[in-house]
Amino acid sequence: xxxxxxxVIAARAAQELRPGEVVNLGIGxxxxxxxxxxxxxxIYLHTExxxxxxxPRPGEEELDPDLVDAAKRPITALPGASYFDxxxxxxxxxxxxxxxxxxxxxxxxxxxxxxxxAIPGKDVLGVGGAMDLVVGARRVLVTMTSTTPAGxxxxxxECTFPLTARGAVDVVVTEQAVFRIxxxxxxxxxxxxxxxxxxxxxxxxxxxxxxxxx
Amino acid sequence: xxxxxxxxxxxxVSHVKTGDTVMVGGFGLVGAPLTLxxxxxxxxxxxxxxxxxxxxxxxxxGLGKLLRQGRIRRGISSFFTSNPEAVAAVTAGEIxxxxxxxxxxxxxxxxxxxxxxxxxxxxxxxxxxxxxKEERLxxxxxxxxxxxxxxxxxxxxxxxxxxxxxxxxxxxxxNFNPLMAxxxxxxxxxxGEVVPVxxxxxxxxxxPHLYVDYLVLSA
Lengths: 214, 219
What we know:
The structure holds two protein chains of two kinds.
Chain A lengths: L4 H10 L7 E4 L18 E4 L3 E5 L20 E8 L2 H9 L5 E4 L3 E3 L4 E2 L14 H7 L2 E5 L11 E2 L14 E3 L3 E6 L2 E7 L5 H6 L6 E2 L4
Parallel strand pairs in A: 1-2, 1-5, 5-8, 6-9, 8-10, 12-13
Antiparallel strand pairs in A: 2-3, 3-4, 6-7, 10-11, 11-12
Chain B lengths: L5 E2 L1 H5 L7 E4 L9 H10 L5 E4 L10 H6 L3 E6 L6 H8 L4 E4 L2 H13 L4 E3 L13 E4 L2 E6 L4 E12 L4 E2 L8 H6 L1 E12 L18 E4 L2
Parallel strand pairs in B: 1-12, 2-3, 2-9, 3-4, 4-5, 9-11, 11-12
Antiparallel strand pairs in B: 6-8, 7-8, 9-10
């Protein structure tokens, strides 16, 4: 594949977002999504450290030390934005008021389990808002490459890494395909670029059915 | 209570005693009461502290200073990882580390300040962070029981305060500060600016003065 896999994933994931939705973007590939949104797809970005209405990255002259996203990087706030404390922010998340959480994952299990906060053998001391987001958001969209740099499948039968939540994932977008979790089972619904079902099967340990959509 | 004028940071941190649980506001260093933390590092002997803060500062910065001084016994946080020295200290068993999902961490502090004895949340159920916690199936969904968090002293930061201790926060520097202000026996607020009573628009006050005991001006 010649295209940058991360750009392919971000571009396809952007199509999953609907105008008017409130969306929380995790670090990594999810943060590339705004660059792929059509001009007519107006969404409202939520950041869990206390802002609804995240705007573009600031220029040098707009930098404000009191205005950062959940990765502690500088942001701007759009007209109509609001600030709130962390308990209110997570009440929005846990209470189902955030429409979509888009985040990366280390592994996704075939029933929608997700592991995205800790690697076995390394420290398990940083969870941040990952668990709250995958449990609370109305839709959970995972953007990830199909394999690790070492070539291990990330769509697996059973997560072996510490779980973030069980059965929380709705959609997985990789550089090759779109999968949806339907009634607790993984369904391949779309092939991206030149990818074939055989290509996808080769890098997917999870069992899945195929219901390709136009 | 209500603040009665501005005191020095040195005087304020004299209220932190050895063995205390201390809440410290901020998301990383954004909205952290850095003048108070520096005063605690430089002008206080209080040690054996339990620190409740989303992060344990950064290496040598903010709470990272207290960590280097060996004065933290336990950290309760959602993200130790932003300070590799804190991770190393927990891993080596030098300090105790309690990790909570960020929303649970925030809600536990809110509950602590609001007189709520605990709450069931679906967040964390079935994960490593549910270990040792009561689990209950509610409406068919696994939930875990989380305890409220309270502290002896809270150190918070607000961009602006009035002389009574009403607090006004700016942008994303609000984060955990208004929650922590409610959940401690003694709340010390550091403000970037202190204005006369009546100058803050009442509707914009996020922390009413009854939560604030002492007021300090940022260095």
